[in-house]
Amino acid sequence: MDKPTMFCRPTALLFLLLASISQAQTSVLTEGAKGDGTTDDTAAIEKAILAHGSVQFPRGTYRLTRTITIPLGETGFAALSGDGTARIVMAGAGPAFLFKGSHEGSAAPSSFKPLAWEKERTPMVSGIEIVGEHAEADAIEATGTMQITIARVVVRECRHAVHLTTRNRNVLIADCHFYHNKGIGVFLDNQNLHQINIVGSHISYNGGGGVVSRGGNVRNLHIGTCDIEGNHSTEGPPSANVELNSTGGSIGEVAITGCTMQHTSKAPGSANIRILGAGTDPSLERKLGRTHTREGNVTISANIFSDVRTNIEVRDSRGVVINGNTFWEGFEQDILAENCDHLVISNNNFDRNPRYAVNGFENAENNGLKLTRCSDTSLTGNVISGVWRQRAAVDVVEGSRLIISNNHILDSDGVGLRLEKVKNSLVSGNLIRDDREDEKKSKEASLMEIEGEGNQISGNLVDRK
């Protein structure tokens, strides 16, 4: 008889590891925390963290009235852990927990001081819930850290769930629920940060945005397999489920893959993804004659987008690839691109699926693609159907060196493909038809060129001249 085969799934290994870590940790109860929901446990929890670095929260509700700062150079390796049954109520302003490290370098090994590896690396938060009770309560803030890891954490009713400031490196956020906060789910705030992965999380109903990066210097941002929805306020300023705003800084080298993003079309200016690429480089005007960069190098692939004013908005950007996604319910439009170059929009499905006629919107969405002042851009292999109340399903203005080919542009109001002041571009192999009933069929031309120059337009199959 064969001997039993010993094996262990990765999930089981993870739980065994977490169990061993929990056994090595000090319970906050040993330093006097009560966890009864009424006692101010701030001092006791702070004492436990400063004394032991690694602490465990048993089942209970722990009340904080001010920020607990965790100076990693003093505490040594730090971890805050629970098994999912502990709740932290932040009743004061600012973050419940502020991790402070001293790392000032990059992710290159040569840039590290010994202190990073001896005491500060990989602070962790896992298995706890943080609930805000103060209007300016945040959950977790980190600055100067290396390899901070946040996993299986729930944050509700705070301002910001995770607030990354000044400088951090190699951030991991996984398996979290950031839900119904007044501000932002994950906020990269004028942050110098290279290498951050946000995966497998629900980031929803945060009024100021889902994942937001503004200013700073950000590279290697990965957002994958998350549900990111409803991160807009009908009363606040326009926001996005994912916002990359390079104003005053530089944001690039971003991958957004395998996510579902949706809601809320009722919020003015809402977008699923908003990329504002006009960054700042003091020497740029001297070198190139303009004051702003065009940031980018962003790939958006295999996502599901719906139910916002604009599904994807891209301005002043270079090197954005939008490939293999599914779009519907862009109430103003699906894609709005202005002042971009090296933009690739390929193999996407832009649809008005009758399945969603039951959602109460009564076909109020417009859909459609609008490209203005874009150059060196490719629009290929897309299926674009059911664009209503637009002057064109695909509206291209003042573009140059474009390739528009092998697209289906179907059953839409207005012109199918409209080209205005487009030059030196190739337009070929597109199928542009409207096969709706006569009373609904567009009376405009399938393909229209206005004031074009140097274009080659050939081999398109159209039903209206």
- Tell me the name of the CATH class of the largest domain: Mainly Beta
**Biggest sheet details:** 43 strands, parallel
> Which architecture name of the largest domain does CATH use?
3 Solenoid
Shape: elongated
Please indicate the percent range of residues in DSSP E strands (runs of 2 or more): over 45%
Protein name: ATP-binding protein
GO molecular function, one term: ATP binding
Keywords: ATP-binding, Nucleotide-binding, Signal
Pfam families: Beta_helix, Pect-lyase_RHGA_epim
Structure commentary:
The protein is mainly β and 465 residues long. The protein folds into 2 domains: 52-364, Pectate Lyase C-like, CATH 2.160.20; 368-464. Helix content is 9%, strand content 50%. It is built from 5 helices and 45 strands. The strands form 2 sheets. It has a 43-stranded parallel beta sheet that branches. A two-stranded antiparallel sheet has the order 24-25. The N and C termini lie far apart (79 Å). Residues 1-8 have low confidence and may be disordered.
Overview features:
mainly beta, two-stranded antiparallel sheet, Pectate Lyase C-like, 43-stranded parallel sheet, 465 residues, 5 helices
What's a concise summary of this model?
This is ATP-binding protein. With 465 residues, the chain is mainly β.
Write the layout of secondary structure elements.
Layout: H1 10-24, E1 26-27, E2 36-40, H2 42-52, E3 54-57, E4 60-64, E5 68-71, H3 72-75, E6 79-90, E7 94-100, H4 114-120, E8 124-132, E9 137-143, E10 145-146, E11 149-151, E12 154-156, E13 162-174, E14 177-179, E15 184-199, E16 202-204, E17 209-214, E18 217-224, E19 227-229, E20 240-245, E21 250-257, E22 260-262, E23 271-276, E24 278-280, H5 284-288, E25 292-294, E26 296-301, E27 304-306, E28 308-315, E29 318-323, E30 326-327, E31 330-338, E32 344-346, E33 349-350, E34 369-372, E35 375-380, E36 383-385, E37 392-397, E38 400-405, E39 408-410, E40 415-420, E41 426-428, E42 431-433, E43 447-450, E44 456-458, E45 461-462
Parallel strand pairs: 1-3, 2-4, 3-6, 4-6, 5-7, 6-8, 7-9, 8-11, 8-12, 9-13, 10-13, 11-13, 12-14, 13-15, 14-16, 15-17, 15-18, 16-19, 17-20, 18-21, 19-22, 20-23, 21-26, 22-27, 23-28, 26-29, 27-30, 28-31, 29-32, 30-33, 31-34, 32-35, 33-36, 34-37, 35-38, 36-39, 37-40, 38-41, 39-42, 40-43, ...
Antiparallel strand pairs: 24-25
